[in-house]
């Protein structure tokens, strides 16, 4: 119980620091973006604003997803993390629509005059440094606790590193009087964001429709095959809910075993799977071997 409480605190703490980082970056980029008129920086500001919303959603997702199961939610509240990731995906797509529209408008109307100052470079470089720090910290905790919501948040920040780098290149181009570099950079940012949207959306959708995580079925088979008391097994069913995975399977044991012995074998299977796969809850149904 203590370890789960510690994990919950660690997840909430890292999510909260991401909210604070997103607030700072969003405000900084909006101010510099409007002062310079740079679409690249404004698109980054909108991207960071999205990260802020996503970070807030992630904070509440990890806070409530760790709530223990109750009589109305027998499998816990882990799906909240999956819904959180899906909402972040939709926000990313909306962001892309605006960036693409504004970039194309500027290219078509030739409205590409912007002012590049030292602040333009400072805000982007600051963003890259902070995003790098946050993404590494988030990925570390996400991997440790198998949290999809934190992984989605980490993906947001790591994507910002690439998009900010593209904007930085655009600003350098504008400094050499190639003003089209800014809207072109914004379009590239949009393409990066769309790529992230697809990855986030697919994974969250797969979890919401109870698609078995890739490779997990084979992993369970490998583990059960190593238990010699199990004569055969079938009907492996796996579903994912936030950081938790649920595995159901049927095993066949020696028909001369007592009920207690068969029950002990079932426990052996549950413990073997739980010891080798993180955050998994196993239900085993034992049957007598027919042949």
Characterise this structure.
The model has no long low-confidence stretch (mean pLDDT 80). This protein has helices at 2-36, 39-65, 79-109, 118-145, 148-175, 181-208, 216-225, 259-276; strands at residues 232-241, 244-253, 280-288. Helix 8 links the parallel strand 2 (244-253) and strand 3. The chain folds into two domains: 2-208, Cation efflux protein transmembrane domain (Alpha-lytic protease prodomain-like, Up-down Bundle), CATH 1.20.1510.10; 216-288, Cation efflux protein, cytoplasmic domain (Alpha-Beta Plaits, 2-Layer Sandwich). Strands 1-2-3 form a three-stranded mixed beta sheet. The longest helix is centred in the N-terminal third of the chain and has 35 residues, at 2-36. The protein has 291 residues and is mainly alpha-helical.
């Amino acid at each position: 119980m203590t370890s789960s409480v510690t994990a919950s605190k660690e997840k909430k703490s890292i999510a909260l620091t991401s909210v604070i980082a997103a607030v700072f970056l969003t405000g900084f980029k909006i101010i510099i973006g409007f002062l310079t008129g740079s679409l690249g920086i404004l698109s980054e500001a909108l991207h960071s604003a999205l990260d802020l919303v996503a970070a807030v959603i992630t904070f509440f997702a990890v806070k409530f997803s760790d709530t223990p199961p109750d009589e109305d939610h027998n499998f816990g509240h882990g799906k909240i993390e999956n819904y959180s990731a899906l909402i972040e995906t939709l926000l990313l797509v909306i962001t892309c629509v605006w960036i693409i529209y504004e970039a194309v408008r500027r290219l078509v109307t030739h409205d590409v005059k912007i002012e590049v100052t030292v602040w333009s470079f400072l805000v982007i470089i600051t963003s890259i440094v902070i995003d790098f720090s946050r993404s590494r910290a988030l990925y570390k905790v996400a991997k440790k606790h198998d949290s999809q919501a934190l992984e989605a948040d980490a993906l947001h920040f790591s994507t910002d590193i690439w998009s900010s780098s593209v904007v930085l290149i655009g600003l350098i181009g504008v400094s050499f009087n190639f003003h089209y570099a800014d809207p072109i950079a914004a379009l590239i940012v949009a393409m990066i964001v769309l790529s992230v949207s697809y990855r986030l959306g697919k994974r969250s959708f797969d979890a919401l429709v109870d698609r078995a995580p890739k490779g997990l079925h084979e992993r369970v088979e490998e583990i059960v095959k190593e238990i010699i008391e199990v004569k055969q097994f079938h009907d492996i069913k796996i579903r994912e809910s936030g950081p938790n995975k649920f595995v159901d399977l049927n095993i066949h044991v020696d028909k001369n075993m007592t009920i207690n012995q068969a029950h002990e074998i079932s426990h052996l299977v549950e413990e073997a799977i739980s010891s080798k796969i993180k955050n998994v809850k196993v239900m085993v149904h034992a049957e007598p071997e027919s042949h």
